[in-house]
Amino acid sequence: MNNNNNTEPPHTIKKRKTNNDSTLQHSLSEMKVAEQEQTNNNELHELKLMIKQMMEYNSTQLSSIQSKMDVVTEKLTSMESKIDQLEVQNGQLESSLETMTHKQKYQEVLLKNQKWNYPTQLREHPRQLGQFGDNVKKLTREIRFGIGACDIGHVHLNLEHFTIDTDAILQHWIEFVQALREYKYCLRCLPEECKSSFRICNYQLTPRIMAPLSKALADTNFKAFGLENNVMGRAGSEFVMNYARSNPILKELSLKDNRIHNREKLDQLCEVINIHPSLDSISFVGCNWEEVTGYDMLCSLINSGGSNLVEINLTDNNINTGRSTFLRDFIVTNPPLQKLILQDNHLDDADATFIASALHQNTNLQYIDLRENPITDEGMGALKMTEFDRSSLNGAASSNHTCLIIYPDNDEVMNENGTGIHPEERLFDTKLVRAKKIYTVLSTGNITYSNFQQLEDAPVEVLPTLLTSIQQYSTYHIGDAAPNQYYDDVSSLSLVYEVMRYWEPAVSVFESVGNRPATRPVATKS
């Protein structure tokens, strides 16, 4: 009976079976999920491992590639260096070959000229040709045979007296020009440092003379080109400009007593100067004319070529600035100009004062010639103060130490920055010049016991430097480029004594050191 009573109903059994099945399925599902996660984790681990291995491999490969690239780069650098060396050697060989070719050509010209003789009909020139006949024949022979100054690149036709172009002269001139045509081979054989030059003085250059001369000079490159007193007329400017344009190595251009007839030609000539690759020295002496003033030349040169020129000579051009600050404003910019010659013009005290103020800010100008200008003591004083301000140590230190000023009364003036009329005679070392001026002021102050007054505001920390400087400044006159010793110099020891005796900060230091109690090492018992 009891067994029958405990028997579960079929629907309960079915329900429980269903629940068990559901639980089993859920467990199986969770197991599958867990297995899948494990599989995924394993695959992810393998993937990470694979990526790590690939990265290590790639890193190794990159290191290997970088190493190879470094080797290649080093080889390329070495090859580029060798290529550069080869290019230099090639350039030297080409230059040597070109020089040898020029020398060979010049030797051929000289050999050919051994058979040349001055034309018979011209050997006995008319007496009226005078000096020109002798000089032009002599110069023509020197060019033909490579003798005299012509052998080192100088072709100078210098006549003491002016010679007018005539029919009798023309044939001699043609012989000279024909010889000049082949002179280019001699110039090309000269060393780079050789300063070749061409000059014609006191001979009239008419259009019929300039035309063949221009053709002969077209490929004959001198480094210096000068014409003096040639009465060339308006065609002369074109002749000069054409030669300058055709000669890339021209360094110096000189026109003396050759008038520039109008402002247009002046500006054109200055523009040629400005764009020229090597021309840096200009001399226009006595070239002003009715339509072109000396001040016009100064302004045109500075406006067009002032940034390139290192030398300007405008002697004897009646320059009158009208108290313009144009020249001062140019000097203040500290251009590369090293030599400025303004001798024999109409510069006055205002101009001298302007120039003096500009020189305070200029360190490139080494020489300025102001002789034969109506500058009085007022202008002279401004210039001398710029060259050496003796009023104080600061004034001496800030003076101009680089420019040799040639004063209107130069015979009576001692130049502080150099000696002689010409800068090439002697320019002193700038640092030594500055030292001399400072030491001169110190010496003057020592005599009057006033140096300590100039040092009143100086901190005591400068004392060691001050004493060292005094010793250094005292040797300013020692050395090849050193200025002469000032006659009133005192000994450096006298200056040191003055500083220590009268300068209050130095005295306090001296007293504090003197009153400090002496210290002795304390003996210790062993």
Topology, element by element:
Blueprint: H1 2-6, H2 10-113, H3 120-123, H4 130-145, E1 154-163, H5 167-181, H6 184-189, E2 197-203, H7 207-217, E3 224-228, H8 235-246, E4 252-256, H9 263-275, E5 281-285, H10 294-305, E6 311-313, H11 326-332, E7 339-341, H12 349-359, E8 367-369, H13 377-387, H14 393-397, E9 404-406, E10 418-419, E11 426-427, H15 430-447, H16 451-454, H17 463-473, H18 492-502, H19 504-515
Parallel strand pairs: 1-2, 2-3, 3-4, 4-5, 5-6, 6-7, 7-8, 8-9
Antiparallel strand pairs: 10-11
Helix pairs in contact: 4-5, 5-7, 7-8, 8-9, 9-10, 11-12, 12-13, 18-19
Describe it for me?
α10 links the parallel β5 (281-285) and β6. It is flat, with a radius of gyration of 45 Å. 55% of the residues lie in helices and 9% in strands. The chain starts with a helix and ends in an 11-residue tail after the last helix. Strands 1-2-3-4-5-6-7-8-9 form a nine-stranded parallel beta sheet. Strands 10-11 form a two-stranded antiparallel ribbon. The protein is built from 19 helices and eleven strands. The protein has a domain at 434-513. It has helices at residues 2-6, 10-113, 120-123, 130-145, 167-181, 184-189, 207-217, 235-246, 263-275, 294-305, 326-332, 349-359, 377-387, 393-397, 430-447, 451-454, 463-473, 492-502, 504-515, and strands at 154-163, 197-203, 224-228, 252-256, 281-285, 311-313, 339-341, 367-369, 404-406, 418-419, 426-427. With 526 residues, it is α/β, with parallel strands linked by helices.
